[in-house]
Write a structure and sequence with these properties.
This protein has 252 residues and is α/β, with parallel strands linked by helices. Helices cover 21% and strands 13% of the residues. It has six helices and eight strands. The strands form three sheets. A four-stranded mixed sheet has the order 7-6-5-8, covered by helices on one side. The chain has a two-stranded antiparallel sheet with strand order 1-4. Strands 2-3 form a two-stranded parallel sheet. It comes from Pleurotus eryngii.
Length: 252
């Protein structure tokens, strides 16, 4: 619960979380002392880390437990794309000018002003990202990038665990709509050896069924039973004009 509340980086960021940030900024290992104190804002959104020592000279116990849980469950910031509002919650890194800085003066890194997007500027606000209504397409489904966009920075934090592994495949429930055909579709694979080996496959539904067919594997494909069977499955699925499910049996 501590870690979940700490990850609220927007306006819901609790008051104790601000104090926690300041405590972790001060207590860093020797390897992080080269990072300027002004640049340390949040260890989860930046590349520096806080100390893990437990001799009473590091972070308080509740912060140690919180960061231990975050490390144990491998919580990290990872998203395909972020909204403009989420990007505003990210800390901006400030560096000194490439020349000798003036007294009590520093400038943002040049790339933030020249090459980056408009959200780094104090200019116009980008329009909000809105998910369009899903279009009912008969055949094609167009990719909607807004559907995989993290709306807030908290949504961009992911938990990555190894978990338990099982050798058994999960049970898959059959589709509710549609019925299995009474006449089962049986796929037989035959090969005939002539001067050049040609693989043939037969798609058989039932006696007198007009969809019964035989397919010969084209010469540009590998002449194997597996290729012939895949062609037969493609043929059977393509010719199934109804919404009924097909039960396929194969001899391979």
């Amino acid at each position: 619960m501590w870690a979940k509340n700490y990850l609220k980086t927007n306006k819901e960021h609790l008051q104790w979380a601000y104090f926690a940030d300041e405590i972790m900024v001060i207590n860093v290992p020797k390897s992080e002392e080269g990072v300027s104190l002004n640049l340390r804002i949040n260890p989860l959104m930046q590349s520096w880390c806080t100390t893990t020592r437990k001799d009473g000279k590091g972070n308080p116990k509740f912060l140690q437990d919180m960061m231990g849980a975050i490390k144990r469950y491998n919580v990290r910031l990872e998203a395909i794309t972020l909204t403009w509002e989420a990007l505003q919650e990210m800390p901006i890194c400030w560096k000194t000018h490439k020349k000798r800085p003036q007294k009590k003066g520093s400038m943002p890194i040049w790339g933030l002003q020249s090459n980056s997007t408009a959200h780094w500027m104090q200019g116009p606000v980008l329009p909000d990202d809105q998910n369009e209504d899903e279009v009912q397409e008969e055949e094609w489904q167009f990719f909607r990038p807004q559907t995989i966009m993290a709306r807030s920075l908290q949504e961009a934090f992911r938990v990555f665990t190894e978990g338990d592994s099982y050798s058994l495949l999960p049970g898959v429930a059959p589709r509710v709509a549609g019925n299995i055909l009474d006449g089962q579709q049986t796929v037989h694979v035959k090969t005939k050896v002539k001067k050049k080996a040609k693989a043939e496959v037969e798609v058989f539904y039932a006696e007198g069924n007009p969809r019964n067919s035989a397919i010969r594997v084209p010469s540009m494909m590998t002449q194997t039973n597996q290729v012939a069977e895949m062609l037969a499955l493609h043929k059977a699925i393509r010719t199934n004009l109804s919404e009924d499910m097909l039960k396929i049996e194969s001899d391979s």
